[in-house]
Sequence to fold (932 residues):
Amino acid sequence: MMMFDRWYNRDQLSHRWWAFLVGWGVLWLLTSTLGPVPLRAQEGEAPRCFAETGQCIDGPVRQFWEHHGGVAVFGFPITAQREEIISGQPFQVQWFERVRLELHPENPLPSHVLVGRLGAEAVERARAAGVWNPPPPEPPMPGCLAFDTGWNVCGDILQAFLAAGMAPERAGPPDVAASVALFGEPVTPLLALTIRGQPYTVQWFERARFELHPEHAPPYQVLPGLLGREFLAGASYSEVAAEEGGTWSVVARPSPPPTPTPTTASSSSEPAVTETAPAGATSAASAAYERGQAALEQGDIDRALETFNEAIALDPTSTWAYLSRGRAYVAQGAMDRALADFNQAIALDPTNTWAYLSRGRWFAQMGEPDRALEDYSQAILADPSNLWAYLTRGNANLEAGAPDRALADFDRAVALEPQNAEPYLARSNAYARLGETGAALEDINQAIALAPDNPDLYLARGDILLSESALDRALADFNQAIALAPDNPDLYLTRGDIYADWQDPDRATAEYEQAATLSTRAIERDATRAESYLTRGRAFLKLGHIDRALADFNQAIALEPDRAEALYRRGSAYREQGDLDRALTDLDRAIMLDAGNAAAFYERGKLFEATGHISEALADYTSAITLNPSNYWAYLNRGDLFFKMRSDDQALADYTHAITLRPGVVDAYLSRGKALLVLGRPAQAFADFDQAIAHNPTSTDAYYARGDAYREIQQPDRADADYDHLIAFYTQAIERQPDRAAAYLGRGRAYEHKGEGKRAIEDLSHALLLDPTSAEAYFSRGVAYAGRGEHDRTLEDCAAAIALDPGNVRYRLFRGNLYSWLGYVEGALADYTQVIALDPTSVQAYLNRGDVYLREQVNQPERALDDYTSAIALDPYHAEAYYRRGRFFLVRGANDHARPDFLRALALARDEQLWHEAHKYLQKAGGALDGR
Fold:
């Protein structure tokens, strides 16, 4: 069951990449000055051709074109790549409608492709022809960006210049250096020109001409001019003139006030000189903003708020200052103030995509998914070319149970940036959650081809392969992810789960310990990150160190009191510890904070089921499925619950749906097979057991299930064949590693199942020689001794197992049963009572203790009745519990109480013998039931 936690954890996090993308901490990262690493075009990839012009693009030119805006920025290609002489030197170039792209192999990456200086050439031609006589340089103006060339860039042209210059993956305050690298600096002020017979207001840059088109709706009211077509057509820029006087006329701007001094961008061409101030900020406001950003990225929230306050006081119109302060308020937990800042940012700039995305995330975190979706849609309306807006809305649609809409958003994201791995990863996640593993693998393979150095992609593909039980291939992917990110503890947790699924507890333990070690190192570096405590807590939980796990989850909650994941994790730990009240409190709180958390509903459903709240459990499993229709384990558990409730058709439907979702995972086959066997359909049952083994030939659970089923239908030879297969499996493991205690333990169990007690004891004794601390080996050997009637040795081994693992209820329950059978009532009572203390949901412990209370040596019938009633309260569908309580009433002459219990036992009984016993006692109690 190690894999159990793994699957619903993946559903809760909706893939690690998405948690990384939209987590609040990373929304701060969206405003950093670090740009993405461009993705390489794949070797051997076919050229991309355009029916519009009949031309194709390929190689570095294609990569540059696709990465920096495509058609919207450059237009379609209008020539093939060819050699031309530029400034006396031969270069490979390709012409597009708006630009000339030049290959410069002499430059380091990423400057090996440059936009030709067509704007500077055109302005020089006009100056030489006498139609352009530059006026004196402009003074810096508020609301504008001033350059050392002497010209300001303002208004809509400034916004277009900054937005188009940004790489599509970037966000936050604009990177002026990126825009300069793409378009160059302005070489004229704002001009009034007549182009193609129409008057336009334009501004020339070294590599472009920006034109105002008020007839178009935003964001298309500013477009780059068609310089590529004009140059190839031989345009004379002496003819691109004003209507008055045949010269280029300057459009007058309002006179700027003498103060404050605006930000001035350096004219240096060095890429290290990067202006990140929001447009319109003063120098002082910009400096305060930058200090706030630095503090925010370092986690110094108080300092960040202080400096953002300063920036806003200096420039009350700074959209980005409000936006970043809102993110800081979120980090502080001041959610009302955060919302006020996001609202103000939108009021200042209703076209700011990132403001809508931030407010949408706020609504999502506050449990208002519909309003979040509205904001994500507004973000897309503000910028239909924004990749992250589609990814964010797509993920929200997926969480809202609208997979078709999610896929439409992810399709749009892929179309926007077909060379970006992220949209493929997002769509792969959606397909995986819908159970379409073929499509999911196709997309994740494409993502890996585009970004082969991204460990998260291998992790995602490994998860998909795990769902298909392709364990070897999954392990190879996780190994690759670890090779790329050896300090990521989550990867070791994942690999540990694989080893656990392979029944290799030693290696699984080593992986979990490494995850704990790496998390500890992360905590030593930064003790303020809740994430590190959460990861280490998960590792401790897998290692069975519940107290240490709880301590880490407590610390994570102390750092982030409203973090739903931390509360859900702590609730899970409390449940394992048996502290059910605290577990329920945490899970309720987690769901209140994040009503879209499918994993929290699933975990609470398990808690409700364990405590006998069946209708609540059913509702929570259904909520988990509604929120995440690909929640395999929720279908499986709900199926088990339906089967217990005798809703057989619904149970089989859930098992079947689980199989459809993850055809390579054996658990649903085994559950459906066992159900079909009980329902008297052995042919279908064994078909399921066979399918489980075909999908995962290394699954020992599948062989045990089929072997035990053969034994149940009285086919011992076939049962022995399955046990022999297990024996051969472990024998091969022993031959590979003769010192592996786990292999001897596994083979000893298989021998015990087959009834070869002597061989079982030999193997289990050898396992203990190799590992004297193995509680499981002591317990298994005790079971083998019991099968041979050597009860003293059984009790000795059980005592050793319990001493090594005192919290193991299975060991104590087995010993209590043996004590009871041997007549040692005091020992039996002590063990059953301890089991109930460790696990208050143990129905069997209550039933068995109730029986002991009725023994002559004890004779405490009131306590027996209490225990039978407690068992029924914990499991209202337990036929044996009603049968035992009915017998209790019958013996004491309380026939009116006995009859309804026997009737309930008859209605629920699956076992033929139990049904006949209940029927017999019902007749003694004065009741009758015709037929079954």
